Amino acid sequence: FDHIAKADADVHAYLELTEEAAFAAADKVDAAVADGTFAQMGPLAGVPVAFKDNMNMEGTHTTCSSKMLENYVSPYTATCVSRLIEAGGLPLGKLNMDEFAFGSSTETSAFGPTKNPWDLSRVPGGSSGGSAAAAAAGMACITLGSDTGGSIRQPASFCGVVGVKPTYGMVSRYGVVAFGSSLDQVGPFTRSVEDAAYAMDALCGFDPRDCTSQHFTPHFVDALSQGVEGMKVGIVPGFMDAPGLTAEVKEKLNEAAAKLEAAGAELVEVELPHADAAISAYYVLGPCEAFSNLARFDSVRYGYCAEGHKDLGGQYEGSRAGGFGTEAKRRIMLGSYLLSAGVYEKYYYPAQQVRRLITQDYERAYEQCDVILIPTSPRAAFQFGEIGDPVEMHLSDIFTVSINIAGNGGMSVPCGLGSESGLPIGVQLVSPQFKDVNMFRAAAALE
Ligand code: GLN
């Protein structure tokens, strides 16, 4: 907490500190050490952890970085949060994000942006920018983020940490404020692949409270020692011409491929022919699901309630107008339009067809390889205010969204500093569904 008080004055990763809960958990660890039962505690005993502010933790504020939920106090705890605490983690607090997870820079937070600890004039990425920055600046050992279209992997790349988006259904979404329910997954940020493996072993597994959660027994720590000998790593030559891809990111990608080959993996070329359509499909499906999920913020049962309204319609209107920020309103209006009669057939329906094609692309590619190596983000962290146009901002998700669309596992692994920018750059490993151990084996070889 002393370190956070110093480091976070500049970075602004934390929205709330949970000192009482942390010290209560630490007391349990101390007691176990004293009476010789420490070895029976969970694998994360004594490890400081923190959570993105769209995850409920009983008694804490869960704001989603929105004025809409500024005063909302969680009456219960999300499964992902309780799994880390049950494994012995010490909960330090709640972390800043783009409002309702809409964004790639954490600039849309209603409570001010988080800064990149490597260069305070730059964004940490987003939407889980607070989680990435906290892990990078040593303000927690494991932080959790959520990823709907890249919100764990892109900030991990910008902040030089490991970030994992597990296969859809591997980690429970219960208690996490929904953005796009068919795309959202929770995952960890850490400073090493090994730490991420411990976090995944604690997080993954069936939860009866999330109907999309699957039975899965994680063995991530065991996988780390398996090496990549004989493993087939797919590379996608077509991606090298992607718009905005910088030379230094290409360089890191080539270095990573060479490193995997040197460690005994075989490189094979694969194609993802419908990848070009992923951004368009995502920015139809995402806003449609967000529009539907955000309908619950009606100011009646909880959330910001505007004053001075004459009737219920006026209360809804005033509260939603005053409670949501610009990007949230943009998504709500877009989703509402796209789902309206006559328009649905033109956009939502074809976007679902594109979703099927993208999923099939991955299935075919995995007939030839065990894991795919692609960039995480086309470039290193950008300056605050550098990308003003929302459509240009959306393009920064070009390498991440298709993985949410297909439901595969994806992780960003830091590969050192870029030769031009001097900023951290990550590469992305993508696994077939529920074979996330494949990407961990490859990630361990890249460290
Ligand atoms: N940047 C993407 C968006 O704005 C992804 C966000 C996310 O994964 N939560 O939708």
- Structural domains: how many: 1
Q: What's the arrangement of strands in the largest beta sheet? A: 1-3-2-4-6-5-10-11-9-7-8
The string of secondary-structure elements, in order, is: HEHEHEHEHEEHHEHEHHHHEHHEEH
Measured as a percent range, the helix fraction is 25-40%
Unreliable spans: none
Bound molecules: glutamine
Give the C-level CATH assignment: Alpha Beta
CATH topology: the name is Amidase signature (AS) enzymes
The total of beta strands comes to 11
Query: Taking Cα atoms only, what radius of gyration do you get, to the nearest Å?
Result: 21 Å
Short description:
By secondary structure, this protein is of the alpha/beta class. It has one domain: Amidase signature (AS) enzymes (Alpha-Beta Complex). Helices cover 36% and strands 14% of the residues.
Polypeptide structure, described:
This protein starts with a helix and ends with a helix. Strands 1-3-2-4-6-5-10-11-9-7-8 form an 11-stranded mixed sheet, with helices on both faces. It has a single domain, classed as Alpha-Beta Complex (Amidase signature (AS) enzymes), CATH 3.90.1300.10. The chain contains 15 helices and 11 strands. The site of glutamine has 13 residues, from loops.
Q: What key attributes describe this structure?
A:
single chain; 447 residues; alpha/beta; Amidase signature (AS) enzymes; 11-stranded mixed β-sheet; 15 helices; 11 strands; 14% strand; globular; binds glutamine
